[in-house]
Fold:
Amino acid sequence: MRNKQAKLLAHVAIKALCVVAVSMVTLALIPSAFADDELAYRRQFQALDPSDIDGHMNLAKWCREEKAWELLDKQCNYVLRLEPDHAMAKVYLELAKSNLGSKGNNDPNTPDPQNSGGTGHIKSGEPIRELTNEEIQILRRNELALDRPERVPVDFKNKVLDRFWNYLAMRENLGPKDRAGFNRLRPAARKGQYMLSKVKEWQRASIDETTFVDEFSDDIVIEDDPALFRDFKNPRVSGVILNSCATARCHGGQNAGEFILFNERIMTDKMHYANYLALNEYEKNGERLINRDTPNRSLVLIFGQPETTGPGSAHPTPVDVVFTNPQNIKYRNLLSWLASLDVTQPDYGFSLDEPANSATGTKP
Structure:
């Protein structure tokens, strides 16, 4: 009799452990559907001939099938730049706009299937401003990788873990065992990734449901650089920028024109992040310094090549050659960093054109 009871208790215990394990696995896997869509989109986009309308429409169809509405919006605008009267591209664009709550781009004249974070039109000779700590937090939250581990300390303010879980449990009908799995997520960055990915999911779902108000992101404090910014500040990337674009006789001096970068002997975080935002925002004649969709078309790479080998574009004024060819180690390091950016430009909610106190975008 005792043996039967022991076996029964053991069976119940094992079953309970399995339930907890499943909950742990479910929570530990950071939702990466959006990141997977963007990665698959980028690979397909880059494999296509830029003028292949049929190929780009097939990619738009794929976006539609995946219900990747932001990507569909971008792809349709790309096709409409190639063929302004393309009927199916217009139909797909309306579908994307409808699912995005009429927030689609709807502008075939935008430079690439990449949403612009700002115009970058600083007045000629006017230095850019340093970013505030709050703005740096916005950039960190938006650029924290959600599909791979991040080695970055994260702090949670104002009982946001409890508030987030109460909302999640109510929305997805979760129980105490699920909460235990969430509590065991280590390190803290995994909790932050999970929470920010859920916020992004709810924001997208709110297009079809009741409006979601993000009351969590502001209290997720990322206390150091995520991988993207750590790599940007590395001499292999930022050093190339500072020693070429940001020199005193180029975009770091009095004759810098409308595009100016910081280049101080001691660079602070506020300067590094401002340089990133300046590069990210700036475009010239419909082309971007940072092209997230096709990184090797980024002007920051093209302008550094000899005119005879550059892809059909040259710096407006004479500059020294930075990359003798695409095999140059500096070129490859910078291209590798550019390729690490998400294909979809986050909406930071502020730009360098605006005063610091106008920054309102705190969403991931």
